[in-house]
Structures are given as structure tokens and as C-alpha cells.
Amino acid sequence: MTDLGKVDREFFDERIYPHLGADREDVALGPQHGVDFGVVEVGGEAVVLATDPLSLTPALGFEKAAWFAVHVALSDVAVSGIPPSHLAVTFTLPPDLTDEEFGTVWETFDREATEVGASIVTGHTARYDGCRFPWVGGATALAVGDPEDVVRPDGATPGDRLLVTKGPGIEVAGFLVTLFEEAVELPAQTLAEAKERFWDMSPVRDALTAAAAGPVTAMHDATEGGLRGALVELASAGGVRLDVDSAAVPVLPGVAESCEFFDIDPWAATSEGTLVLTVAEGGADDVLAALDDEGIPAAEVGEVRAGEGVYVDGERAEHPDVDPSWDVFAAYAEKVGLE
To answer: pTM for the complete prediction?
Structure first.
């Protein structure tokens, strides 16, 4: 197991995958390393579900912190192509969180869930000694729909086109620069552009827009391990090869400069909001047009071939061993006195 972040494939395969409880026929898609969601079939419908830890970073301000938290919770089911429909939330809160601060958090959860059509159906809320920010609970999201509409993570097929929204390093700019602004030395215009990336840190609209527009065969969001990790995981899930043209990958304003300032490889750093997807041949233009209509930057960056692995500009790309964002976060949190 890695010291920080998600477990690696070896740990998952050895310690987790062999022990998954009862073997039930209604489980259409169970746990796999690097796969965002599971699927249970109930009464002829697919129930897509995913669970994540819930983090709140007060230094962002509680509205921004809650916006990010709820979109992280919703994103893993959204990449199934089925709109999120239900949400369960557990808060294990530090004793010093005020009622007013929690009110801001909860009102933000309510607003964002309502906007995507998700109902909050159950949960648990309490203050406990020993709890501290940012890790303050967990959330489980569900999406209920037609099984035929589920975009499976292992659906990429040779001949499909490879698309990427927003590009790498979104979270380095949007999250780290916003959080550590006082310690970031960038020109004023670049700093403003980087901070604007905060509102790009959700793949929910990307995924639902793409799935509604064309023959999407697989989707995966680029969280820990960044764009390179997401590409490797998507290729592994589908048992295919991805060939990527790095020059075609979009890079949003403020991202390259932010990654250079923090000395982070933008392709290896967590990039919540970046979506990797494959589209059946002939459908890429429709998907790109739909994303453009929604103001979501995207590009066709490569293709799916028979084989295995990811090749960027002809060179084999491997999954990052450790996401570099963890060390940068720790170093700058100490530098600015962030608890």
C-alpha cells in the first residue's frame, strides 16, 4: 500500500479483491482497481453506486469547500452516463465547527444536488472528539436508470476515438493555487486564471453531456494519478491500447504556470474535473459539439487500438507511483500554517 492516497493495484488484488462478501447475481459490475463505480440490477433497472471520503477544507471558505465535496461525491456515478439520482451523506465533524458554518455546507449540498436532480435520502451528522478537517465523513451517490444506458468503464473498443475534457493539472491550479494563494508567486493575470480553474473541478456536466450526445463507450475521471493514471486505468479496464497525441490535449489558462511553480508534472497530478472518454468511430464530432455548446473545453487526442497499455507520442506511459500533489500540499500547508 502507498503511504498516502489510494491503494495500488497489487494491494487491491492481494488484499481486497479476494474478499468481497456474498456472491450475488444482481451485481452487474463489482469492484475493480481504478474503476469509479459499481452496478446492481434491481427490478429491470441499473442502480449505479459509488462511495467516497468526504473532505472539507475551511481555508477555501465553506461554500467553495462544500461545492467541491459534493461534486466529488457525484462524479463517480456521473461517469456511468446515468444522471445522479440519490445521495447519502455522513458528517463526522470537529467540535469547533459552528452551526452557521455547517449551515453553509448543507445549503451548498442541497443546491448542487437539486441542480443535478439528486435527492438526499439518508445520512448521519454529528460532532465527535478526535475528528478534524479536512476528512470529515463520507458520501455514497446513486444513479438509477436503464441498464442499456450505462457507460461501462471497460467498454473501450479498438477503433474508438479518445477524447479528453479540460486537460491535465486542473486541480493543481484550481485547488492548490486557491488554497495557498499567499505563497504563490505568479503574475496577477496568471494567478487569476489559475484560481478560475476551481470551478472546472467537476466532471459531472462533462460526463452527462457526452453520454447524451453520442455513442460513448467508456469514461473515467482523472483523480489521483492525474491524466496519465486515468489513461492507464481506462486502458487496463478495457484490455485495450490507447495511443495519445500529447500536442492535441487541451491545457487551460493558468495550469502550466501553476504546475511549473509547484514543480509538479501536470500529467501525474490529481485533476478532478478532467474526463477521459472513448467514443465509437463516427461519433466524436457530435460529442465534441455538445461539449462545446456547454462551454466545456475538449479535444480528440488519440485512438483505441488492439493491444494493451498507453502510448503517448509513441512512448509507453506508466501509472504514477505516487501522486505528487500530496507532498506539495503537505509542504505548503506547513509553509502557510494551514492546520
So the answer is: 0.95
